[in-house]
Amino acid sequence: MSHFSPDDLARQLGRGLLSFPVTHFDAQGAFLEGRYRDHCGWMLEHELTGLFAAGGTGEFFSLTPDEVAKVVAAAVQEANGRIPVIAGCGYGTAIATGIARDAEKAGADGLLLLPPYLMNSTQNGLAEHVEAVCRATGLGVIVYNRDNAIVDDETLARLCDRNPNLIGFKDGVGDIELMTRIFARMGDRLTYIGGLPTAETFATPYLTMGVTTYSSAIFNFMPEWALAFYKAVRAGDQAHVMAGLRDFVLPYIALRNRGKGYAVSIVKAGMRIVGRDAGPVRSPLTDLSVQEEAELRVLIDRAKG
Predict the structure, then answer these.
(1) pTM for the whole thing?
(2) What is the pLDDT of residues 155-186, one digit of tens each?
(3) For 249, which DSSP code?
(4) Distance of alpha carbon 146 from the chain centroid
(5) Residue 230 catalytic?
(6) For 200-226, what is the HEC assignment?
(7) Which domains does the chain have, with CATH numbers?
(8) Does 93 belong to an annotated binding site?
């Protein structure tokens, strides 16, 4: 059973930093529940306001629906009501509604609705998809605007009017005009989450538009650094923010951009470097090369000082 109502979830998520644990696999790609739970527990030793299980960084796209439920249940057990656990959800409507119901049974507190697999659609079609997921569960739902699933402000307003458990909007597009229209129209009806990769790059400008939180993948391997950066953003400490961007985030992004699909691979590489190996990524993703991982090690060592 959920520990956070949709309204409680919305208030909680906007208060601080969020993170997405990677999903742990062995060499054959099987889920390692014990090591995953250990990692979630380690993350929860630090200051977080929400844990997104089986999200994009958690390789949602490579998990079966049954595996999503197992990953979410493991995170729920480890969190034990201390902070909300939000489950990844997606694919076509029939699969997404099933994942939503399974996540609720597993004890999740909310859902992050990722884009439907591959399909492009009209605003009406996207609205039907989002509404079907909202109505399949009593959990709070966060819609993730990105790629082939970009709802506009009018569609989002209709969805908010019809679905009280639609409590959040995560932006992965970076369209300033659209974000401004959405915030101007919905105001505090929604909690707004920064979801562009890498979120730290956009944190300061997005804060001025009412986006008080974002999801940090870097938290997986440098939680103290990630928290200090987030607090600098919230405090308006521009010198700290710019130093963090210049010395770590921008070189990290340049390394990530060398390979397609490296957004997850580079996080797992970071975990190996700090001694918290989460195993390989699942295909079709590929891991960083030995040389690339060595370059990441230099960045991490310098950032940790």
Answers:
(1) 0.96
(2) 999 999 999 999 999 999 989 899 999 999 99
(3) I
(4) 12
(5) no
(6) HHHHHHHHCCCCCEEEECHHHCCHHHH
(7) 6-235 (3.20.20.70)
(8) no
